[in-house]
Amino acid sequence: MNFLIDTVGQPKIISPLAYSNNNNDFIPNFIPDDNKIRFDTIISKDKIENSQSFEMAGPRKVIYFDPLKTKAAIVTCGGLSPGINTVINALVTELVEGYGVNSVIGFQYGFAGLVPEGGYSIVELSPELTSEWSLEAGSSLGSSRGAQDVEAMVDSLERLNINMLFAIGGDGTQRGAMEIYREVEKRNYRISIVGVPKTIDNDISYISKTFGYETAAAKASQAIEAARVEAEGAPRGVGLVKLMGRHSGAITAYASLANGNVDAVLIPESPFKLEGENGLFAWIEKQLESKDSALVVAAEGAGQELFDADNEKYDASGNKKLQNIGLLLKERITSYFQEAGVPVNLKYIDPSYIIRSTPPSPGDAVFCNRLGQNAVHAAMAGKTGLIIGLWKEDFTHIPLEAAVSRRKTVDTDGSFWGSVLQMSGQPPRFI
Amino acid sequence: MNFLIDTVGQPKIISPLAYSNNNNDFIPNFIPDDNKIRFDTIISKDKIENSQSFEMAGPRKVIYFDPLKTKAAIVTCGGLSPGINTVINALVTELVEGYGVNSVIGFQYGFAGLVPEGGYSIVELSPELTSEWSLEAGSSLGSSRGAQDVEAMVDSLERLNINMLFAIGGDGTQRGAMEIYREVEKRNYRISIVGVPKTIDNDISYISKTFGYETAAAKASQAIEAARVEAEGAPRGVGLVKLMGRHSGAITAYASLANGNVDAVLIPESPFKLEGENGLFAWIEKQLESKDSALVVAAEGAGQELFDADNEKYDASGNKKLQNIGLLLKERITSYFQEAGVPVNLKYIDPSYIIRSTPPSPGDAVFCNRLGQNAVHAAMAGKTGLIIGLWKEDFTHIPLEAAVSRRKTVDTDGSFWGSVLQMSGQPPRFI
Amino acid sequence: MNFLIDTVGQPKIISPLAYSNNNNDFIPNFIPDDNKIRFDTIISKDKIENSQSFEMAGPRKVIYFDPLKTKAAIVTCGGLSPGINTVINALVTELVEGYGVNSVIGFQYGFAGLVPEGGYSIVELSPELTSEWSLEAGSSLGSSRGAQDVEAMVDSLERLNINMLFAIGGDGTQRGAMEIYREVEKRNYRISIVGVPKTIDNDISYISKTFGYETAAAKASQAIEAARVEAEGAPRGVGLVKLMGRHSGAITAYASLANGNVDAVLIPESPFKLEGENGLFAWIEKQLESKDSALVVAAEGAGQELFDADNEKYDASGNKKLQNIGLLLKERITSYFQEAGVPVNLKYIDPSYIIRSTPPSPGDAVFCNRLGQNAVHAAMAGKTGLIIGLWKEDFTHIPLEAAVSRRKTVDTDGSFWGSVLQMSGQPPRFI
Amino acid sequence: MNFLIDTVGQPKIISPLAYSNNNNDFIPNFIPDDNKIRFDTIISKDKIENSQSFEMAGPRKVIYFDPLKTKAAIVTCGGLSPGINTVINALVTELVEGYGVNSVIGFQYGFAGLVPEGGYSIVELSPELTSEWSLEAGSSLGSSRGAQDVEAMVDSLERLNINMLFAIGGDGTQRGAMEIYREVEKRNYRISIVGVPKTIDNDISYISKTFGYETAAAKASQAIEAARVEAEGAPRGVGLVKLMGRHSGAITAYASLANGNVDAVLIPESPFKLEGENGLFAWIEKQLESKDSALVVAAEGAGQELFDADNEKYDASGNKKLQNIGLLLKERITSYFQEAGVPVNLKYIDPSYIIRSTPPSPGDAVFCNRLGQNAVHAAMAGKTGLIIGLWKEDFTHIPLEAAVSRRKTVDTDGSFWGSVLQMSGQPPRFI
To answer: What interhelical angle do C213-233 and C250-259 show, nearest 10?
Structure first.
C-alpha cells in the first residue's frame, strides 16, 4: 500500500520553469509524476520489508493551475518555530518569480485570520516584502492557536477567489487543514490545500525532520552548556535543564548529544524512577563522586508518571497541559541530597521560548527554502490534501490524513537513542 | 580628600618590564606613583566640584617584590561571571611572562579552598594552562559562596609562603578580602591583598563598570529579543522577561536599551504601581491598542515593594532572598486582562544563569586582560588592600574599604536612565 | 552487487554494551551483521533500480577484539574541518567508557606522526582530556598533508602493538589508509583500519554528507551576508564572494541557498561564460537595473575554463593548484562595467580559512559523535578497510576502495541544484 | 581654552521631554547648557594640566526649534559601520516620539543624495520603519564616498525646508558637513548641522570611541581565532591576519588583545623591521621553537615603510591607497623560512569587509542609541556645526572644526598599547 495523493484536477499546462528532462545538460530535471520514495531502506532478515512508498515532491512538467490566473494564500498557525518566515518567502518567491503568479496574500494570526470574527485584514505578499522577513525569527504574518469554524474559513477562501492555501503549522494546524480540504472537496471547489509541517518537536509521522527542530535543539544546547558551566563551577554542582518536548524527547536528546557532556537525558519515551539503586538520584550521586558535578536534561514531557493524575488542564489548541517536571526535579534532587547530609549546588535553567523564537540556522534556512519551493510545485501541479515531507533525504508528498494519524516519538530501540545513551553513559533505564 | 592606598613596604627593585619613561620612543610609559585620576569630570555651576581622586593603576618603575622570590595565589568566589578565566590568565601571564614570577597557585572553590576544612587541593598555574581556559565560560578554579574563618585563611597563606593574593569576586568577596587584609596587617605579614571586582550587576561603587556586566547584558538582550518575537507573533501578545539584578537595574536597563523595542523597563531603583491610570497595566493596554503587542522587562529586584514584607530568607553569602517579581507580574498581568475581558497572550522568559555562564565578549576579554595586568602591577609594587577599578576610561586603585562601603545603583536622575526612558517611551514613573 | 567489507577475523566475544535484541524494552538494539541499507530509494519507471546496498553500521552483539587487550590509535590528516575534535572525543569515549578499552593513543600531525622521521611524540588519550577538546575548532592532535612511507607506518603500528587505527581525513587520507590497510593485509596483521571521512567539500562518493560541511557552509553564508550588506549599501553595488570548493560547488550552493539573496551561484560543475547576452555580465547588469545591486558567489573551482591551461602547480598532497577565480571575476567585472561607462562598486570577500577553522555546529557535533561511535563499533567488531558513511539517514560501512574511487559533485540535473537556481532566479546556464 | 559650539539662534521654547531639574524625583535631569566635561582627567606632577573642556551633551530645558514646525533630514556617507541603522532609528525615534517632530526624511547614498545629479529620491522616515532596520547591518539609506558641490547641497536643504541635517559619517563626511555648515552660515539660514562620527577605525580626535569600532574589532577577533586554530593545527604553523586600519592600529590592537594569543601585533603607529636579530622573522622563529606555531596580526596601514614610495593611488574620497602589507608579509615570511631551510605552514586570512558589514553588538547598539538621542537634543536646542562625542564616559559636543583637525592614533606611550604588548610578549619594537 502506498500513500495516495489527491488532486484538484488534471494537469495540462506546460510548466514555465527552466527545468528539462534531459540528463547531463546542466539543467535540473522535472520530477516524473509517478516517481516514488521508498519508505523502508533497511534490508534485514529479521523483518519483512515494508513496501510502502511516498510520492516524490518536485516540479512537474505539466501543471494544473494557470499561473496568470492563480491566487495563492498563506497562513501560519500554532507556536513559533525558527524558519516560518523563510518558508513564507520561499512560497512567495517560487510562486511569483518561479511560476509568474501575480497574486499572493497572507492571512494574519493563523486560522483566526480566515474568519470574519477575527477581524484581521489581509496582507498582500511580494518577494520584495518577504525577502526582508526571510531570515527573521517568528512569523511576520502572526500566528495563533485554536480551531475556527471550517465552513466560515472555506467561505473566505471562496469569497477571495483563492486557488491554493498553504498552511504552515503543526499537528493541530494540519488537522485544521484536513478539515478545510474535506470541506473544499465537499463543495467541489478547485482549491489546493498544501501543508508545511512545523514543529520544533520533530514529532510528525513519516517525516524525517521538521523545520526549526535543529535550530531549536542547537539553541537548547546553549542552555545545556550554561548549566554545565554552572555545575562545574561550584562544589557538588548539579546542572538541571528543562527543554520543550511534550510527547517527544527529540530536542532533548539531540541537544544533549550535541553538548556531549550530559550525564542523564530524560525523555517522555522512557519512564524513570528517582529512588533506588538504579534510580536517578543514585546516578547523580555517582557522578558527583567521580567528578564533583552532574548534568541532567529533561524534556518537559518526561517523568509525567511521577505526578498524581489529578488536575488535568488543556490549552486553546486542546493540548493537555503538563505538570512541570523541571521544578519537580529541582525540588526533589535538592531535598534528597539535603536530607542525605550531602547537599548539592543545583542550578536550574528553563530557556523556554528562547529556543524557538530565534532565526533559523543556515541548515534550517536551506531546508525551509526547499520545503516552500516543493509546496508550490505540488500546489501548482494541482495536488491537494497533502503536506510536504522529507524522507531519507528526498522531499515527499504525504496525505494529510496519514500525517496527522499518529505522532512520531524517539525510538528507544533505535540507533539515535543508542548514540545518546553511549554519550551520557547512563544506564538504558533508571529503574 | 583622596583615596589612600596601603603598601606592604617600600619599593626598591627596578621593574623588569620593557616600559620606559620617555615619550615618543614607541615604548609604553611607566606610571608615576603619584598620578591620580579625577573623580569628578563634569564642571557645573550647579554643584561644588568633588575634588576626590583615585590613584592611577599601571606598572611602576620601582617595585617591591623580587619576582624570583615571589609566590602568588588566586582565588575566585561568588556567582560566575563572564571573564573570570580571562582575568586568571591575565594574572598568571603577567606574573610569569611579564615579571618572571616562578610560582603561581590557585585555590579551588573560593575561600573554602583557603581553609583546611574545605579539603580542596591547590592548583599549580602556568600560562600554558591558563591560556587554554582564557576565553572559556565559568571559573576553572571553581567558586563558592560564603565566608570562612579569617584566621584560618591567613594561616594558610603564611604556611604556603604566599606573597600576594588576588581575590576575584563581588561585594561579599571583597569584604572577605578586606578581612584577610586586616588580619595580615595585624600580623604584620608582607602579603599584598588585591581584589578584582566581579559582578555582572555592575553595582560596585567608584567603578565605571565591572567585568562580565556587558557580556551578561548582551546575552540578556537575546532573551528580550525572543520575548519581542513571541509578543509580536501572537494577537495581543505580551512579552515579559525577568533578568538578574538584585539591587541594581543596570543589566535590565542596558539590555533593554540594546534591544531598543522594550515598552517598559522596571528596575529596583524606581518603584512602580500596577493599577491606576498611570500604572503599568494601563501602559501595557496602551501599547496593545497601538501596536497589538507589548514588551516588559523587569530586574529581579524590581517591584519588591509589591510583596508583603513577611518571610525574608537569606542565602549562604547572607544576601536577602528576593520574591519572584517575574512570576508576580506574569500572574497579575494575565489575570488583570482576563478580568477586563481582553485577555492577552503572555510569554514569560527567565533566562536565569544563561546570561552569566557564557564566555566573555571580546570587549570584556580586553577589559579582563587589562584588569588582570593592572592587578599584578599593583601587587608587584607592594600595594595592598585595594581593588582595581576603571574610572573615566582609566584603571585605578581603590581601597577595599571604600569599594565595599556602599552599592552603586542606576542613577534615576542621570543621562543613562534618561536614554532608557527615551527609548522605551514609558513615563518616568508608573504611579 | 553490494559493497563487501573485510574483517580481520571472526567475532566471538560478547559485546559489553548495554544494548539488547528485544523490541519495546526501552533498550537500544544491536545491529544484525547482515543488515543492509539500500543505495537506491527512488522508484521510477524511467530507470532501472540500482540494487546495491551498504552494510549497516552500528554495535554488534558479538565482537572481535577483547577490549581489555585492545590498543587503539587515532590520526588526523589534511586540512582542518569543524568537528575533528568531536570525532576524536567520540572515538575515545566509546572505546574507553563504552567498551572498556584501556589504551588509546593519538599520533600527532597526520601520517607524519606515524613515521620516525616525523619526530613527533605520541599522545595518550583519555575521555577526560578529549572531552575538553570536543567542541573546539581545529585538531588538537595536529594535522598535516602529504603521504608517508607505508611500510614505515605499518612498522610503527606493529611496534606499538596497535590493534586498530582510526584515520580522520579526506580523499588523500583515505587513500593513505587504504595503502596501510593493504600493507597490513599483506603482512597478515590483525589491525583494523577504519576511516572517518572528513572534508568540508562534501565530495566523497556514497556518502550523503561529510562532517564539517554544514558548519563550513553556515559560516560561509555569513560572508555572503556581509557581501549582500555591502552591495546594498552602495550605489550599483556588486558583492562578490569566493568560497572553498575545488571540485565541488557544494559549500557554495548550500551557503547561497541558506542566504537566499544570491543572484548568481557559480560552481565547478556548471561551466559559464562572462560575455554575451546570456553571460554573467549581462545577468549582473539586469540585477543592477532592477534593484541597484547584485550578489555573486563563486566556488574556488568554478570557471577554471576561463584561464589558460598554462602553468599548473601542485600542493604537498598532490592536488592541482587552482587559478584564483575570485580575483579574475573581481577584475573582469570591474573593468567590464568601467568600460561600459556604468562603473560598479564591487566589494570582494574571500573568507578563506575562516569557514573551516571554527567549532562544529550543534548539528555537526551530533553527527561527529555518531560517526565516532560507529567507527568504534566497526573496529571492535573486527571490520577493516572501510570508512563510516551516512546514507539516507543511516550510518553505513563503505569499503575504502569504493569510497576513494571517484569524487562526488553537485548533480546539476538534481533537485538540490534546482532549488539553488529557483532561489537565485539565474538561468540554468550562463552561455 | 574651551571648545565653543555655534548655535542657529536663541532657544526659547520649553522642551516637551519628560525630564526635570529636581534630584531624587526618579526623573532624569535636563543638562544645564553651561555644563562642561573636563578634557584632562589625569593629575600628574610630570605635566601641566590641560584645562580644555567640552560642552556636555544632553537634553536642554529650553530649545530653539518648535517641534511641530521642524523638518529634519539624515544622510549616511562613507564606508559601512555596524550601527548606522541604530543611529538612524535613534534619531527618528527621538525626533518623532521624543520631541513630536512630524517630518523626518532620509537622503539616499550619501551626499550624492543631496544633489539633483545623484538622481536619488527622498525617503520618508518614521519610527515604525526605522525600528525594523535598527539592528540590521549596513545602511538602509545607502551610502557613498566622495564630495559633492556644497552650494547645490545647501540649495537642496533650503528647497526642502530642512531645519536640521544629521550627517553620519567619518572624517571625509564631517569635512563635508563642515563645508555645508559654513555655507549655511554664509547664507544665514537657520539650519542645524550635527554630525555623528562613524569610523570603525576609532581615529577621530577628542572622541573616546566611535560607534562600530568595538563590533568590528570583535568580529576581527574571530578571524584571529581562525588563524590561531590553523597555526596550531599544522607543524610549524604561522597564522597571519590583515585587518582594516589605514592610519590607526586600534582595531588590530583591540582584536589581538581580545584574542589573547597573538605573538606579534603590527600597527601603523610603530614602524618595524623584518630582518635582523630584533626583527619580525627572528621573533616568529622564536615562537616556532618554543611552541611550534606563531600568530601575527597586522593592520593594513602597518609597515608601509617597507614598500617603495613609487606609485601612490587615491580613492574616490581622496584617501591614499595603501600597499598590501598582508600579501607582502605572506610572501616574505614564506620565502624567508623556505630559504632558511625550515619552511613554515603559513595560513593567511584577510576578513576584509566581513568585520564591518555586521549588525552592531549590544554594546554598540546602546552607544548608537545614545549618540542618536544626543544628536537630536543638540539640534533641537539650536546647536550647529558640531559632532556628538563620547569623552570619559560622558557625551559631548565637539565643533566640527576641532574634530576634523587631526586624526587620533594609538598612543604607543600609553597604557592600552602597553597592555597589548604585555599580552603578546613581543618586544616594544622590532628593530
So the answer is: 50
Query: Strand, helix or coil at A297?
Result: strand
Helices (H), B234-360: 250-259, 280-291, 325-339
Mutate to test the interface with A, among C374, C380, C388, C422 (most CBs of A within 10 A): C422
Both C56 and C132 in one domain: the answer is yes
| Alpha carbon distance B386, B378 (integer Å) | 9
CATH (domain of C310): 3.40.50.460
Looking at the fold, whether C350 and C362 belong to one and the same domain comes out as no
Average pLDDT over chain A, rounded to whole?
A: 94
Q: Does A37 touch chain C (CB under 8 A)?
A: yes
Q: How far is C44 from chain A (nearest CA, A)?
A: 5
**Cβ–Cβ under 8 Å, residues A198 and A168:** yes
**How does pLDDT run across D43-70, given as a tens digit for each residue?**
998 888 888 999 999 999 999 999 999 9
Q: What average pLDDT score do residues A407-422 get?
A: 96
Same domain, residue pair D247 and D278: yes
**CA separation, residue D199 to residues A83, D169, D207, D268 (Å):** 34, 7, 11, 17
Query: Which range of residues forms the domain containing residue C230?
Result: 214-355+413-424
CB < 8 Å from C in window 51-90 of A: 53, 56, 58-59, 86, 89-90
Nearest CB partner across the interface for B230, out of A235, A347, A353: A353
Does D74 lie in the same domain as D16? yes
Rounded distance, CA D398 to CA A403, Å?
66
Q: Burial level of B412, CB count in 10 A (0-12/13-18/19+)?
A: buried
Q: Tell whether C372 is within 8 A of chain A (Cβ).
A: no
Full 3-state SS string of C120-174 = CCCEECCHHHHHHHCCCCCCCCCCCCCCCCHHHHHHHHHHCCCCEEEEEECHHHH
Identify whether B407 is part of a domain. no
Residue A14 CB: number of other CB atoms within 10 A?
9
Residue D311 reports pLDDT greater than 60 = no
Provide the domain count of chain C.
2
Contact at CB, A366 and C27, closer than 8 angstroms? no
Of A45-59, A346-360, B166-180, C215-229, give the lowest mean pLDDT range. A45-59
Least CB–CB distance from D98: residue in B257, B417, B422: B422
Chains linked to A by 3 or more Cβ pairs within 8 Å: B, C
Residues of A in contact with B357 (CB under 8 A): 225-227, 229-230, 233
Answer yes or no: do D376 and D276 share one domain: no
Whole-angstrom distance, CA of residue A168 vs CA of residue A170: 7
Catalytic residue among B171, B201, B203, B364: B201
Same domain assignment for residues D340 and D371: no
Domain assignment present for C396 = no
Looking at the structure, tell me whether residues B224 and B99 fall in a common domain. no
Contact D283, D291 (CB under 8 A): no
pTM (2 d.p.): 0.95
Query: Rounded distance, CA C349 to CA D276, Å?
Result: 35
How far apart are alpha carbons C339 and B30 in whole angstroms? Answer: 58
CATH of the domain at D46: 3.40.50.450
D321 in contact with chain B, both atoms CB, cutoff 8 A: no
Q: Do D237 and D157 share a domain, yes or no?
A: no
Q: How far apart are CA D69 and CA D66, in angstroms?
A: 5
Cβ partners under 8 Å of residue B168, min gap 6: B74, B75, B76, B77, B84, B87, B88, B139, B195, B196, B198
Q: In this structure, is residue A431 part of a structural domain? A: no
Answer whether residue A430 is part of any domain: no
Digit-coded pLDDT (tens) for C258-315: 999 999 999 999 999 999 999 999 999 999 999 999 999 999 999 998 987 655 666 6
Q: Enter the C-alpha cell of residue D292.
A: 611550534
Q: What is the mean pLDDT of chain B?
A: 95
Contact criterion met (CB < 8 Å) for A131 and C17: no
